Amino acid sequence: MPPKKKITKLEKCPTGIRGLDDITGGGLPRGRPTLVCGGTGCGKTLLALEFIVRGIQEFDEPGVFMSFEETTEELAKNVVSLGFDLEGLIRCKKLAMDYVHIERSEIEETGEYDLEGLFVRLNSMIEETGAKRVGIDSLEALFAGLPNEGILRSELRRLFRWLKDKGVTTIITGEQGKNELTRHGLEEYVSDCVIFLNHRVVNRISTRLLRIVKYRGSSHGTNEYPAMIDDHGLSVLPISSLGFDYPVSTKRVSTGIDRLDAMLGGKGYYRGSSVLVSGSAGTGKSSLVASFVDAACRRGERCLYVAFEEAPAQITRNMASINLDLKQWTTKGVLRFHAVRSTLCGLEQHLGSIVKLVSEFQPMNVVIDPVTNLSAIGTSQEIKAMLTQVIDLCKNKGITALFTSLTEGGDAPEQTDVGVSSLMDTWVLLRNSETLAGERNRLLFVLKSRGMNHSNQVREFIFSGEGIRLTDVYVGGGVVLTGSARLIQEAQDKAMAEAGRQDAARRQRELELEKVQLLAQIETLQHRAAVLAEDFDSISRCEQSCLDTSTRNRAELASARQGD
Amino acid sequence: MPKKTTTTAVTASPPPPETWNLRLYVAGMTPRAVAAFENLKKLCEEHLPGRYIIEIIDLLENPKLAVGDQIIAVPTLVRKLPPPMKKIIGDLSNEERVLVGLDLRQR
């Protein structure tokens, strides 16, 4: 029986670019060329360069970068801000870079030729570094520089065959054509893997998107993924959730307000759950959330506060007025603020920043205040999608997430502006109620809290210099009173209770007195009875003694009489 | 870096002031390379008698030299002197184009 032939899977070359390895299922095809195409300024050169540099830094695979557009010095300067030290790598002989300049005006074609010069240069660089990765940016320059396209195309075919034979993983960049992927049809030579970078502007917000158009021999994510370029290079955000199989905790965390903990089954929120605090303007959403943050920081848990509306200094100052000292936690490093206007960038960028901050700072709690600000840069569908991703990220890491949502005045309080309440495990609603006495008081309801026994009673939410307090509202006589009306009613009740108590005390005193009197009477009668008994005794004693005396006398008399 | 070139210097008499310095880059002695050299020699004898120097640089032996003159195609003829530098690619079979490229007008 012939031995079973083991079919090896396509080997992949990890890029080290955050997110790209996830979408491609491990990286680019090893030993084969990949085409990266896109319009101007969408990050093709950066992707190629980062692929090479990370290959050296993280996977110890030396690389070669051949640029047709920028000199080595220019490229080195461009990527210094990303922390890539190209000159250093060249000195260590891990990286070889070459700048090929083709000036059409300098060249005169006078007969048959081939591009062996290019091969020679590439080869010498690969040999001297032992490179496993090659980046070429961008071959389109050859088309502009060399007049004979026939020779060029056949040489390109030869080049890719040669690169495959050398066993190096190559990235080629190409400029986007009008109707095709690349202007000069490079995709017909490089057909193993094609990545397309796009830079779209919608509503004045620009987003970078990356899409894997083709990947021979492997499954890959086929959607358009948002990409970001920040101070660490390119990152792709493939966090569309896959399934609901994250681990769930049964631990509970305090909300920071004792009575609110009591309302939530006595212990507070579930760790890793998502909490929505919604309410109209001025109802105290940020303060509620800040209490949680304060309590969490006190426990030593790191918190990330994403603020879309207020500056961190302002939040700190405002919370200090209700006796929450957030500054101490910021100084200690357990609390980090990320304050940015929602209109600064697109939804994907915000998502990307949050993802990055979460993975860098590793908080146990995340606050986003408020989420409704994002409606300036996206439809409610998109916001819901983005929040789903944030919540998924948090749940996968067991991070408790709090969101505040502003209900516009006039909207029904139970309608959240962006329809996200179904994503949340706990929903605390803050509401203003206007009393007949002409004042507005804040009420707090726990609308829902999955998985725990929560109170359905309303509480009044009071700010004071000592902090936030929840008090019971006055519920009596079919009426709910809050604020000063409640205080008045409470005072009245108290007075009534006091009066009742005094009444009872008085009654008791009266009865006591009566009892004492009766006892005194009983004593007197008992005394008399004792006296009577004594009399009785003495009379009977007297009687007895008389009888005795008379008997004795008779006896004496009788004895005297007989004597005669 | 010490320059190692297979130099074939062909001169007639002590070079007069304006000496043309021509470099021919090849990748191994392929038929095309040989043809290019032959064509070049013929051309130089015809138009620049006694005032030219031809250097042949084999990139297979000295790959690093390709970087300096930005050579990607072979064979490439580079006119180093007199300035400005001119580059001509191909086996130099098209004499007209070579002359135009070298800026050697018909005398």
Describe the protein in words.
- The complex is a heterodimer of chains A (564) and B (107).
- Chain A is an alpha/beta fold and 564 residues long.
- Chain A is 39% helix and 24% strand.
- Chain A contains 14 helices and 25 strands.
- The radius of gyration of chain A is 45 Å and the shape is elongated.
- Chain B has 107 residues and is an alpha+beta fold.
- Chain B has a domain at 20-93: Glutaredoxin, CATH 3.40.30.10.
- Chain B has helices at 31-47, 65-68, 95-102, and strands spanning 20-26, 52-58, 76-81, 86-89.
- Chain B has a 4-stranded mixed beta sheet with strand order 2-1-3-4, covered by helices on one side.
- In chain B, strand 1, helix 1 and strand 2 form a beta-alpha-beta unit.
- The longest helix of chain B has 17 residues, at 31-47.
- Chain A binds chain B through residues 98, 100-102, 106-121, 123-124, 142, 146, and chain B through 25, 27, 32, 36, 59-60, 63-64, 66-67, 70-76, 85-94, 97-98, 100-101.
Produce the secondary structure layout.
The complex is a heterodimer of chains A (564) and B (107).
Chain A (H helix, E strand, L loop, with lengths): L11 E2 L6 H4 L4 E2 L3 E6 L5 H16 L3 E5 L4 H8 L6 H6 L3 E5 L7 E3 L6 H14 L3 E5 L2 H6 L3 H18 L2 E7 L17 E10 L2 E11 L8 E7 L2 E4 L15 E2 L4 H6 L5 E2 L3 E6 L5 H14 L4 E5 L4 H9 L6 H6 L2 E5 L7 H15 L3 E5 L10 H18 L2 E7 L19 E9 L5 E10 L9 E6 L2 E6 L1 E3 L2 E3 L1 H80 L2
Parallel strand pairs in A: 3-8, 3-9, 4-5, 4-7, 7-8, 15-19, 15-20, 16-17, 16-18, 18-19
Antiparallel strand pairs in A: 1-2, 9-10, 10-11, 11-12, 13-14, 20-21, 21-22, 22-23, 24-25
Helix pairs in contact in A: 12-13
Chain B lengths: L19 E7 L4 H17 L4 E7 L6 H4 L7 E6 L4 E4 L5 H8 L5
Parallel strand pairs in B: 1-2
Antiparallel strand pairs in B: 1-3, 3-4
